[in-house]
Amino acid sequence: MHLLHRAPIALVSFALLAPLPALAQDCVIQATQADQPAYARPDDPWIYRGTDIPVDEQWLFGEMPNGVRYAVRQNDVPPCQISLRVRIDAGSLHEEDDERGFAHLLEHMVFRESATFGPGEAIPHFQRLGASFGFDTNASTSPTATTYNLNLPNANRQTLDDSVRRFAGMVTAPVLSPENLAQDVPIVLSERREQAGAQRRVAEATTGTFFAGQRLAERSPIGTVETLQGATAEAVEAFHARWYRPENAVVVLVGDADPRVLAATVERHFADWEGEGPFVPAPDFGDPVAPAGANPENPVGEVDVIVEPGQPRGLTYAVLRPWVEVVDNIEYNRRNLLGQVAAAVVNRRLENRARAGGSFLFAGIGRDKISRSADGTFVSLAPLTDDWEAALDDVRSVIADALSQPPAQSEIDQAVAQFDVAFVDMVEQSRIQAGSDLADQIVGAVDIREAVASPETFLQVFRSVAPRFTPDDVLTATQELFEGDVIRAIMLTPEPGEATAAELRTTLATPVAANGIARDDAEAIDFADLPPVGEPASPISRDQLGVLDLEQVVFPNGVRALLMDRNNEPGRVTVRVRFGGGWQAIGEDEAVYAELGPMALVNSGIGPLMQNDLDRIAADRKLSFDFSIEDGVFEFEGLTRQEDLEEQLYLFAAKLAMPSWDPNPVERARASALIAYDSYNRDPSGVLNRDLDYLLRGDDPRYATPSPEEMRTATPERFREVWERLLSQGDIEVAVFGDIDPDATIAALGRTFGALETREPVPAAIRAQPIGFPEITDSPQTLTHLGDADQAAAVVAWQLGGGSEGIVQRRKLDLLSQIFSNRLLDGLRERAGAAYSPFVTSSWPLDVNSGGVLFGLVQIEPSLLPAFFEEAEEIAQDLATNGPTPDELERVVEPARQFLMRAQTGHTFWLNQLEGAAFDANRLAYLPSIYADYDEATVAEMQALAQRYLSSPGWQLQIVPAESRDAGR
Fold first, then answer.
1. pTM, full prediction
2. What's the DSSP call for residue 384?
3. Which of 286, 731, 750, 792 has its CA 20 to 30 A from that of 134?
4. What CA–CA distances, in Å, run from 768 to 591, 732, 762, 771, 847?
5. Domain 64-270, CATH homologous superfamily name and number
6. Which helix (H) or strand (E) holds 308?
7. Which residues of the chain have a pLDDT value below 50?
């Protein structure tokens, strides 16, 4: 008897099977006579007051007498879902010195217990309704706000009303008792510890320098150990009473319901909210100010040099202006768009300079308004060597040229074309914009004190600026980007003594000569002028596969294509090309070239096109080119549209047929890897990123992160030798899913992939190689890091299997890992506050017959490592012995059901399920059971899987500080 094994289903029965239950044709919650909101103001939408931006009439805005403002909108993407946001205009900038961290701490306590939930009931309640923890139910605290989020699937009138009622009770009346405080403070401290180390020190030094003299400089949302440990229930209650007031609240409700229903629901549960005591205005956040005596032409102010051993060099300087609440009108947005084009021209030049041998690995500029505290233009760069002055001068000379001379019209046209494609895509996708994204847009607009605009308005405004996209106008916009009150800078270096603040200040204050070497005024390239891939071919077969209108096309050269025409995402097409042998085809001595592949392979060019040519040719088209290496296959992927589909297919096919081998991207990728390597050993996360894949595969050298010595020996010539072989091997499957014209798509395939030469197969011996797993020992394998002494991480893993015969098991194991994860979270975080975010996940590769793992991971204090291993092993053994409870199973099954119901509306979901089906019948055979495999999962199945895979001890790994190697057990 094979556990969970099912015989393949005959294709003849496919047409009779629906892979998922059909979504309700209409699950809109209709309005009744009782749904008459009293405070809706369609004639006076509060977010548009004072602006001439056209009102997006799909929104209904209201404002209650107590001060609560709301925005509601009907939206059926995904069907039946309701997205709720409750934003409180209070973040870390609203804290007093002895309250630092209270806004974030309060976020945790709101979920702990409230007037509408008992202790620890909130998350399980929403899980039972299908809302997954973290994705659908969550909260966030920023310097300026705290926002509570709920995405409720499968909502009806009752669950909508009850959920809004409960969220209102959570926010307005949390139970801020000493007992709850005692449980949440350790969790927040654990979260703070996970953010500790070099990353936090750099972040704190950066904000302290850039926002010197302002509240933002010393008010990170995570708070301080002293204020968190000193928190009392009375003090947290006082913070809540001061800021959690109706005047500070905005409620956003978007979903599959009549707007009157949504508005009436918000009013029913928030209209009676009353603030305690007099209203307290927000404190003054302060402005960036130049130091006395600063040069008004070049007002360099505060600078800092941070020394963090092992961290890559980096430098950022900012031209800062005060944040000013703007009149968000059309003219303001026109100026903004012109500034974005100006920044795009400068960034293209900086990229050109880096590619052509500049002294920096990368550099870029961007304008950002930070936490209602500053309006800044930020310039960031990564020096290639320790000669940071040369790199900074190099970047500044490119910017100086952009400030002194107008750009070429061709440079502007390239940037404009890219923006136009992006805005057109926004318009095409607006019909299927998710309700959760729409809700977040309102929250974001409130945060920056601006209005919202429809995608159609964005496009209209952008195109209305076209007459001003002239060289002189872009020059003016560029100069405005670099006008400000003060210039501040921060540098990160791994070496003490490499730079001082005085040297950095002097360098920034010294004028540089403009350098026009990075200008790019080359003419546009036409796809019609490129060489053909080969002789076009017609398909030898074209067959319907009997499910979801999926069609398979086979060409004489062996290329197989899968086509799915779905118009529910208008204008969107995904192309995924699978070929070759993936990691299995990479030699044991070729790990360094596997590491360089994703960074350099695409940029090394195709045919006559090099990097800059690829950028120019794609400027006015929707094209992309991603590359990844999977266990048993290589993948190209691009997001495009029907009118650009043939060009997208050409790029992929030409990469296989006539790859170019520009050495510059290889050298740049090599430099990037060398710069990054030392940072891996500076905290537990870095060690995991460096070594976990390698260790989980039984020390397979192909998966090892190359050492600096190995990276230095890598050459462009050997890179070409390795990748020429890998690109030439293996069957090709081209999946084209989305809003397509099938006949035109097949014709384009015939001129691209159908025109390829017949390929060599992947050697059978390569395909047969099993993927290893580490040896189980009595004690954890121990690695060390050179970071903070209170940081550690641990992994426990069990070996699974692989192969498409196990697709059903793969789905069941996904549920088992989520049950395990919930228990681990409860055991470590909720009971002891020992870890902020432990999790368990499983993998079951389909393209190879081995390599699957189920593993749990946690970041934790070194002294608590034994507790993690003991907890994880106890959970594994209990699941194997007793299985989960029915409630535990339902808490993961219902979110899975709802995810499937929501995800099926997009073509990418089906692409992920069906990739590989051209050569593997199991992908199709097991598709019809996908919903049932989750929906009908039983406690007995979960226990059987746990008995099979978790009954023996797992492999254990701990990463500890170097001075405490003996931590753990």
1. 0.94
2. S
3. 792
4. 19, 19, 11, 10, 11
5. Metalloenzyme, LuxS/M16 peptidase-like (3.30.830.10)
6. none
7. 1-18, 23-25, 966-969
